[in-house]
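Lecture 7 notes: from sequence to structure.
We start with the chain below.
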Amino acid sequence: MSIIVTIMALTLCIVSIIMSNHRFSATNEDLFKQEALDLTRVVSLTVDGDALKTVKDRVHDIFASIPPDKVVISDEWGSDDFNKQIELFAPVVDMPEYKKVHEQLSKVQNLDIPTVSSVYTMIYDENEKMEYSLYLVDAATEDPCLPGVFDHVDSFDWDDVDVMNREGKDPYLTNTEMYGWLVTAVVPIYTTDGEIAGLASIDLDMNEIKANESSFFMMLALTLIAITLISVIITLVIISKTIVRPVKQLSVAAGDYISNDENSIKFSSIYIHNSDEIGDLSNAMKKMESDINDYIDNITLITAEKERVGAELNIASKMQTDMLPKNFPERRDIDIFATMTPAKEMGGDFYDFFMIDDDHMALVMADVSGKGIPAAMFMIIAKTLIKIRTTAPGTPAQALWDINNKLCEDNPSGLFVTAWFGILTLSSGKLICSNAGHEYPALMHKYGNYELLENDNMPPLAAMEDLEYEDEEIQLLPGDRLFLYTDGVPEAKAPDGSRFGTDKMIEILNSKKDCTPEELLTEMKKKVDEFTGDSDPFDDVTMMSVIWHGKS
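Predicted structure tokens for the same chain:
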């Protein structure tokens, strides 16, 4: 922050100095240009144009007599050739017209204007020899440009030389090694006949002004930089006191709070009296610390309670699992195996098989609506009612009628049960079954394929009272297989949202027709798990596989 503030302040200071220098210099230059132009206009009105034209014509005549290869320009000032050339123009200086113009120029030269460097007349011209500016009369007291001094000029378009002589030239600024800073203005001088006699020109010396400008801006720069640095230091001290120090205190407290050291600095022990955002942040951190401590205390209590509930759920889940048959009969006439995998700690699916008498076995596959503890409790009630009712005479449909009415008597939660209930005569293979809204079982006759047994499917148990259920009789042959399941198998969901489906289930069943019931259910569960991937279980997965071998 200190570096950024310092750089920004110094940058602003430097930009201000540069802009001020540029603007001040431009203003001075504009003032001097206007002064030079005004003085030059005075000169153009003061000089006798007719006398100046006489001087110009005489200078042109002498210049015309010089061979082109003998012309010497002012760059060779002081050389023998240059001095010889000046001597050729000596008669011009003795001309009355020359003296008259020189006297008029001298009046302006001798005015009490310290910036006036020189006042002179000249003319722009071009011929077969060169493009040049030709000096006519110069009132300078030191090293005047006498007639015969020529400057080679190529700084403007010589197609407009007539315009230059008629209108003059806008004031311009030069900086040369010999003369330094000069402002020059050029204004035409006319004869009484309106002809161009020459150009009046004045050079104003700006060297002292430029030197004063440099001194002024050096002093300005040093003053601004000093003020800037002092302001930066004061600003940084204020920032350190009102921002950096409080933020550092909060940062240290935050680090100590994370370390959970009993001797660490706490937010509540920090005293920040700022009435700005830093103070608001400090108050917010203190409030946060208090809320987090309260939250941790609550979480501790909730975690302990959750662990207690979890332990009880584990016990209840084990009790529920223990209620399902685990000892599968080892008989020659039937082979059976079943599994139940709950989606939560406790599930709503259940299966059951038990001997009604020596020749009849009950087969049950059911699914309670909902999940968790309510579904598990309703499952226990439904399972118990089915087992009790089966001990009484009657077909599966008659048993489901009684069970349905019992479940409807006290069902405030509105739960219901889908169930497939069948009674298999082990000696003959006759299967009488009834379906209360459950999934269609899959049946495979020996040497055939699994197919869905789409028998009459009535509403589920506990949906409404006095529902009439239908029995269906199926004759099994030795080697026939029956696959019972809940909707957790076909409705298993993949990460992309697609369903496992009964078609895929039948395909897997037919690919494992020769497996034992245990092998078949293991393979089916594996395929379902592969299909769902890392997705959370959608529903309980309960399956039963039965093979009837016939009477031995």
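Points to note: The chain has twelve helices and 17 strands. The radius of gyration is 58 Å.
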